[in-house]
């Protein structure tokens, strides 16, 4: 039997990006978070996190936007996940990124979820589903969904999940913006716009029509129900996104939306063929740093 030396043991977990099909934001809470109702869909854009034993805790990132990912363990979410599993964790964490950094697609949360799974397995920590979910919620509002994947309804600050019945496959075009947006800045901009207009937070609206559309599997019906309360705030901070959204629908997408806090714009298309056509046209329009396609729903964090 082949014997693997301990130091060479490594575990890789893959986690997916998300798009918020619906995001309604209520008022700011005493803890600074906003009460919200969201429907998440995990899509086929993945980060891989590989964890191996080492003399000390370190983290490094390669791939899309790697230079913008912090490499100090105190602020990197994947390293913080390792410390949540073992406060004395001595691990080398390598992140291979495809999910845009500060793109509104929960890339950091995907890395945290992947790291949580990899570290528990590598360190032999036997956490059940409840402990994993609690640790995930401590790390960030979107981390429980990054573990879960598929399609889910999120409430609270987004960390409380319930299952959603979703039929069919959804084909997206993603327009990655030239510069990122910070999530707290976008929430603060929404508060500022609401205060200026004298409109109180509408409150977290239940997305009943969207849930019916997802259960029916009718892509056009789902396209008609995409909604994001953070979109006006993202557009206010990056007005160029209006052009991006228009270019996507002009190119033949059924609908376009800012993903989460942005600035990534996600365009739902009738089918895979249409998505490929829209992506080519959008890339030619020069409104984004890069343009790609993805499909959903896909599973949450899993071993590879
Ligand atoms: O949970 P997470 O650390 O990812 O959130 C990042 C920031 O986004 C929070 O510090 C907060 O400013 C904002 N946020 C919010 N309401 C939410 C989720 C996030 O205001 N429901």
Can I get a quick summary?
This protein has helices spanning 77-85, 107-123, 129-139, 143-148, 183-197, 208-216, 219-223, 231-237, 241-250, 272-285; strands at 10-28, 34-53, 58-63, 91-97, 151-155, 160-163, 170-176, 227-228, 255-258, 265-269, 290-296, 302-303. It is of the alpha+beta class and 304 residues long. The two termini are 22 Å apart.
Bound molecule types: cytidine-5'-monophosphate
Q: How many E-type strands?
A: 12
Number of helices, where a helix is a run of at least 4 consecutive DSSP H or I residues: 10
Main β-sheet description: 8 strands, mixed
Q: Strand portion, in percent?
A: 25-35%
Residues in helix, %: 25-40%
Order of helices and strands: EEEHEHHHEEEHHHEHHEEHEE
- C-alpha termini separation: 22 Å
The 3D shape can be described as globular
* Average pLDDT metric: 95
Low-confidence spans = none
Radius of gyration: 19 Å
What can you tell me about this protein's structure?
The chain has 10 helices and 12 strands. It has helices spanning 77-85, 107-123, 129-139, 143-148, 183-197, 208-216, 219-223, 231-237, 241-250, 272-285; strands spanning 10-28, 34-53, 58-63, 91-97, 151-155, 160-163, 170-176, 227-228, 255-258, 265-269, 290-296, 302-303. The model has no long low-confidence stretch (mean pLDDT 95). The radius of gyration is 19 Å and the shape is globular. With 304 residues, it is of the alpha+beta class. Helix 1 runs parallel beside helix 2 (107-123), helix 2 (107-123) crosses helix 3 and helix 5 (183-197) packs across helix 8 (231-237). Strands 1, 2, 3, 4, 5, 6, 8 and 12 form an 8-stranded mixed β-sheet that branches. It has a 4-stranded antiparallel β-sheet with strand order 9-10-7-11. The protein starts with 9 loop residues before the first strand and ends with a strand. Helices cover 34% and strands 29% of the residues. Bound molecules: cytidine-5'-monophosphate. Residues 32-34, 36, 140-142, 157-158, 183-184, 187 line the site of cytidine-5'-monophosphate.
């Amino acid at each position: 039997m082949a014997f693997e030396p301990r130091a060479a043991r490594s575990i890789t977990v893959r986690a997916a990006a998300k798009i918020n099909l619906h995001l309604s934001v209520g008022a700011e809470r005493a803890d600074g978070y906003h009460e919200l109702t969201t429907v998440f869909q995990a899509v086929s854009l993945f980060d891989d996190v590989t964890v191996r034993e080492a003399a000390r805790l370190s983290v490094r990132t390669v791939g899309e936007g790697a230079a913008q990912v912090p490499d100090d363990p105190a602020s990197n979410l994947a390293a913080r996940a390792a410390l949540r599993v073992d406060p004395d964790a001595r691990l080398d964490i390598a992140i291979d990124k495809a999910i845009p950094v500060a793109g509104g697609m929960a890339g950091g949360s995907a890395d945290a979820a992947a790291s949580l799974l990899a570290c528990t397995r590598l360190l032999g920590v036997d956490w059940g589903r409840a402990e994993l979910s609690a640790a995930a919620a401590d790390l960030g509002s979107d981390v429980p969904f990054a573990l879960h994947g598929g399609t889910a309804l999120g409430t609270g600050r987004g960390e409380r999940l319930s299952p959603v019945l979703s039929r069919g496959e959804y084909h997206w075009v993603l327009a990655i913006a030239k510069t990122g947006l910070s999530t707290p800045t976008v929430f603060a901009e929404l508060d500022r716009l609401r205060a200026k207009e004298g409109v109180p937070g509408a409150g977290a609206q239940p997305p009943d029509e969207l849930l019916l559309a997802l259960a029916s599997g009718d892509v056009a019906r789902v396209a008609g129900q995409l909604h994001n309360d953070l979109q006006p705030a993202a557009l206010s901070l990056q007005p160029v996104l209006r052009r991006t959204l228009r270019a996507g629908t002009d190119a033949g997408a059924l609908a376009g939306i800012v993903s989460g806090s942005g600035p990534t714009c996600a365009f739902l298309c009738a089918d895979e063929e249409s998505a490929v056509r829209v992506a080519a046209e959008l890339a030619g329009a020069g409104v984004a740093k890069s343009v790609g396609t993805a499909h959903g729903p896909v599973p949450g964090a899993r071993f590879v």
